[in-house]
Structure formats: structure tokens, C-alpha cells
What we know:
Radius of gyration: 20 Å
Helix content: 25-40%
Number of strands: 11
Order of helices and strands: HHEEEHEEHEHEHHEHHHEHHEHEHH
Shape: globular
Structural class: alpha/beta
Strand content: 5-15%
Largest sheet: 9 strands, mixed
Oligomer: single chain
Amino acid sequence: MQPNKLISYALPDNRQLKIALGFYEDTYLNFTELANKYGYRSEEHTVVTEDGYLLTVFRILPQCNQRQRFPVILAHGVYDSSDAWIVTGPKTGLGYILSNNCYDVWAANLRGNVYSRKHVRLDPNKDSDYWEFSFDEIGRFDLPAIIDYVLGVTEQSKTYYIGHSQGTTDFFVMGSLRPEYNNKIRLSVQLAPVAWMKNLRSVLPKIIARQTKNIKDFLYAVGFREVFAKQQLIHAVSEILCQYFPQEVCGTALALTTGYVRGSITSKNLAVVIGHLLVGVSVKTLAHFGQLIFSEKFQRFDEGKDINIKTYGTITPPLYNVSLITSPVVLVCAKNDWLSSLKDINILSSRLPNLVEKYIVPEPTWSHNNHVWGINATEYVFNRILNYFEKFNT
């Protein structure tokens, strides 16, 4: 094992200073602190995967005493964490809304992010082997471990699942490689689903995808296995800029990459949200997404001819067979999503044997992150999710 020579610029967690600088308080509160602030009972659980990763999963208990309290697992996007589901506050945070409607909420943190940066024997700051994973391992190991844990604690036979962005990719990987877990899903709702990426509208990822291998090799050579981490300078800079220029700086960055339309997420929510983003992702995960874009296929990680033969038994990596996903699936899409295009979603939906609905939000400016943080997310998405769940509760 080669040490992971992570270059970081950790800033002191000086909350009084941040208050003096005019930061929104919710920007620097963690999941438990946010839940407690708004009067929600929460718990912290640790889930151990088959390959030794220690995952933190936060639970928000139902805000009612209804007898049948079905669990809901929430899975975040690539640069995100469990905080995504509650950072906009009690009136518009999906985690809170589900709790208000008597659901037992389990907000996952997938391997490598700030809450799940632990392993039974590997040190993420020293052992590069810790970071040798992409969304393939998350789908194969993290989600099954979380599902089994949640069902064991709640004594239920099935759970609901809501994924956003990479959280949907992880689910499609699990359903393809571990199809037995379809029997444990009551219904999944996939927000901004990502599988095929051949019709990606965002230009920057396309350009980077063509240099995926070179970029990955370079970052490995200089000692980077983790990027966009909370202890790195990029997080601190983003957090500060978005407090003062949420729409001008961070809104523009989202617009250039996701299709975000300025003002469709409030300035306050944008400032708070960005403070909770960029909390750690493996270089290999980003490289895997790059391969999907470049290959125009939904396939496992391409390790190169020799390792592919050893790992998969084939020269090229196998495709994910999403036709094995027999659990009921809802796809929630947006016309202006530059990362999850309707053309690519059509490819996915045509292969899902138990597609309940492909719902396109009837708002032309709706984009990748509006599903979770948009001004009208409750009206367009969250209420609809509650209706789906109500139909499947029996």
C-alpha cells in the first residue's frame, strides 16, 4: 500500500468567527445539529460493509405515533452527504417532510464522504487502498449493507428508497449486480437518474471525459486519491464565496454544469447548500463517470485489458444489466437537466421491467438539483413522492 499523500488546507472550525462574518448558521451545523435545532429526534448509526467500510447513517424518527411507520432510505449525490435532505429547513427539506408524514427516515452517507471516512483497518489519510472504489463498490456493498441494517432495526421486510443523482446510479448498480435486493425494495424514486450519459448536455464533463485516464493517472501520481473534500481549500473557498455571492458565483457554477437557472433555488438555500457540498469523493468515482460519458455505455469500471480479464473474465468491462431491476421504479426527470438528459433517461426507462412512471417535472427551468432544493420542490416533487408512497403502503 502506498500512502495517500493528501494535500489539505484544514481551516479551524471557528463558529463565532463565521457568525461575525455573517454566515447563515445552518451552513456549518452538521446533520444532528440541524435536526435538533428544528425539533426532530435523530439517531446516528454505523453500518459495516462486507469490505470493511464504516458508514454513518442518520435516522430521523417519525413525528407521529402511527402504527405502520415504513422506513425510507435516502441516498445522496456525488459531492454530497446526508445533509442534502434537510439543509433547506423544516418546511422544504424532504427528510423532515417524510418524518412529518410518519415515515422512518434513514439518510445514508456513502463511503468516502465526511461522515463515512472510516474503515475497519485502512486509514483514508495514509492508505491509498481505501480510495480504490467507485460507485460500483457502493452499489455492490454499501447499499446492500444499509438496506439489511435498516430492515433489521425496523423489523420490516421492505424499505422505500429515494436516490438523487449518483444515489440513483448506486441503486441501478445494486439492482443489476445484486438482484436479490429487489425483493427488499417496496418502491424506489430516482431523482435526476444517472446511468447512460451519451447525451450529456453539459460541455465541461464531456471535455474532461476524454482525458479521464490521463487525469486519473496524474492525480494518483501526485498523491491524490480523494478530491473535493471538506478539509481541502476548495470547500472553504466555495463556502465563503457562496455566503456573499450565492447566485453570482455558485449559481453561475451550477448553471455551467447542470443547467441551473438563476433564482430557481433561493439565495439563502444556495448559500447553505454549498456549505454542505464538496465533502469528499474518490478520484476513481469521477473517473468511472468519465468512462460512462466517453464510452456512451452503462458499464463497470474499465481497469485496462489485463486487469479486466482477471476481474471480469472479459477484455472489456461488462454492462450493467438494468433489466434485472424487478422492483418498482419511478424516474423523476427535468427538461433542463444538463447531466441527466431525457434522451438518456429514455434509454434507461426502456430497459426497466417494472417502471411505475417516468415523471417529467412540468417546469421548463427545472434542472438537476431543483428536485432536492428548488423553490417549488415540495409542490412538484415531494408531494408526488408522498402520493407514490401512499399507493404502495399496502
